[in-house]
Amino acid sequence: MCAFVAFLFVEGPILKPSWNEGNAGSKTGSCCLALPSDTAKLGVVTQSFLSYVRRKRTLMLSLVGLTAFMALVAVTQGAYDITPGHLLRVLSGAAVGPADIVIWKIRLPRIISAIVVGWGLSISGLSIQSLLKNPLGSPSTLGISQGAAFGAASAIVLLGKQMVSVTVFAFAGAMGATAVIMVLASLRRLSPEAIILSGVALSSLFASATVLIQYLASDTQLAMAVFWTFGDVTRASWPEIGLLTGAVAVASIFLVCRRWDLNALATGEDTARGLGVNVGRMRLAGMLAAALVAALATAFHGVIAFVGLIAPHIARRLVGSDHGLLIPLSAIIGALLMLSADTLGRTLMGSGALPVGIITSFMGAPMFLYLLVRGYR
Q: Helices (DSSP H) in 231-278: which residue ranges?
């Protein structure tokens, strides 16, 4: 169907009218069906499109396999060495001991958290970039991450070491930042560019407030607040993983169901409205879904930069702007980046582990600059 529609717009109509002038000057005629050549062209376009889709699906399956392989490597890497044979015995239930505790209580939650957080942040960044038509759109540029950091710092200073309250305050801060942006956008009818600028201003405000709270905190509270902002997947529990996975899955299904609306919006707001897309409602629903996922990920795991920004750009360079392929590929790339960064952090430190937020910042910044240079060269 996509190839057929593209053919109609690019190659021209199959039915070509042929008009004959009558004696009275009026036009009479009939449509001549030019099937042989045009049908051949349609077949070539269809086969080319199907071949393109097969190549991209093969690429996605390859990346899924690479992510699964990286997960197996991550289980065996760390301060406590686990051989592949020992891993199989533990997973089958044939071995019980320290390795069983390390795998089920420490490494598997960490690995699954990295995959889910990377998946969620990537589709959140993709949604923001597509809805606002801004390549710099991400949870960080809208102030969501900074709002969560402010909420977490407030909870640490006011309520102490209660992790439940820290998570709740971080989530409230992230959603509060989102609410401010959406209220401003709806009341003042801000353009997508103005929404990004509002997010940057809000980020600066929350960052200043966070620094003020840290200045007034004690040494212990200051250390806790700073460590929370590093971003780490070791603090995850199975209930948190389940809640985040459910939210990410619902947001992903929503985006996949609205992939044609996102494709239409990419051609311009006027074109999307002409095709029947309610741009305002679509933008509001998509932004709320992206903000909810980013808020949960940040509340549970701290500030993790660049994944939501860089993963959609990598995916666009591989499959283009068709959201039917772009959404799943962005999710896969985000999961792979997060899992690779976490595994690298555990491997570099030996007995310890670098927070994954530090690794993603070191990996993301040069990679993003490289993509910019390649894109504008």
A: 238-257, 259-266, 269-274
